[in-house]
Amino acid sequence: MTEKMLEVKNVSKVYFVEKGIFLKKVQPKHVLKNVSLKLCPGEIVALVGESGSGKSTLAKIIAKLEKPDSGEVIIDGINAQNFPSRVYGTKVGIVFQNPLTSLNPKLKVKTILNEVIALRKKISGDVLFDLKTIAEIFSLDEKVLNAFPSQISGGQAQRVAIARSYAMFPNYLILDEVTSSLDVSTSAKIVKIFQNLNREFKTAMLFITHDLILAGLIANKIFVLKDGEIVEEGDTFKVLNFPQNNYTQYLKEAII
Ligand code: ADP
Ligand code: MG
User: Fold this and answer.
1) How far apart are CA 242 and CA 256, in angstroms?
2) From atom 6 of ligand 1, which residue's Cα is the shortest distance away?
3) Which ligand is nearest to the CA of 54?
4) Is the CB of residue 243 less than 8 Å from the CB of residue 249?
5) Model's pTM, two decimal places?
6) 83-138 tens-digit pLDDT
7) Strands of 49-126, DSSP E
8) Rounded distance from Cα 176 to ligand 1 centre (Å)
9) Measuring from atom 12 of ligand 1, which residue has the nearest CA?
C-alpha cells in the first residue's frame, strides 16, 4: 500500500521576463530550483521565505494552477496530473492572501458555501458537512451568511474563503499567507481554527508565511525557501533554536 502524503519532488519553474526598456530582452528567471517537500496527514508544515522567494508559485503548482517545468507533485502515490480537476479539489484545497479573489461578489456567503457543499456531495456521494456545521466551525453567524462578500470585514471574508475550501473536505490544505493582511487578534482566531481542524480531522496543512515566528507557533516542521531553493528544513524546535543556515538566522533576527 502506498503511503498517504503530499509529496513535492524536485520541482523547478522558470518564468521568462522582459528586461530593458529599448532593447527588450527575454531573460529566464529561475523561480523554483529543485524543490522537494513532504506533507503527511495530521501534520502542519510551514513554508517560510521572504517576498519573491517563490512561495506562491509553489502553492499554485501544488494546487495545479501552474505547471512545473520539471519535477512532480504526488498525492497519496498518484501523480497530481492524473487526477481529474474536480476530484483533485477533494484532495488539495488552496486559500490565498486576498479572500475576495476566490469569492463570487454576486453571491451571498451562504450560496457560495452551499454550492461547494453540493459539489462535494455530488463527487463523493455522502454528506460531509452541512451549512450549519461549516458555519459553526468558522464562526459565521446569520448576518455573515446572508451578506455579500463586499459587505463583510477582511477577517470574516478570509474565514469564508477558508470555509469554502474546507467544504470540499480536502486532505491537504495549502494556506498561502492567509493571515498576512489581518490584524493580530483576527489572525490568532484563524490560526486557532486551523489547529482545531488539524486535531479533529487530521487535515494536513502547508502554512505559507514570511513570518518565521508565526510558523513556529503553528507548524511541527519548517521548510525555509530562499530564491527558489529550500535552504533549511527540519522540526520546528530545531529550526528555530539551532538554525543551520545563515538565512534562517537572518529571518529570525529580522522579525525579533
Ligand atoms: P512569493 O510568493 O514568495 O512572494 P512568488 O512565487 O509570487 O513569490 O514569486 C517569485 C518570483 O517569481 C518573483 O520574482 C516574481 O516576480 C516572479 N513571478 C511570479 N509569477 C510570475 C509570472 N507569472 N511571470 C513572471 N514572473 C513571475
Ligand atoms: Mg506570495
Assistant:
1) 16
2) 54
3) 1
4) yes
5) 0.94
6) 988 889 999 999 999 998 889 999 999 999 999 999 999 988 777 789 999 999 99
7) 70-75, 78-79, 92-95
8) 13
9) 31
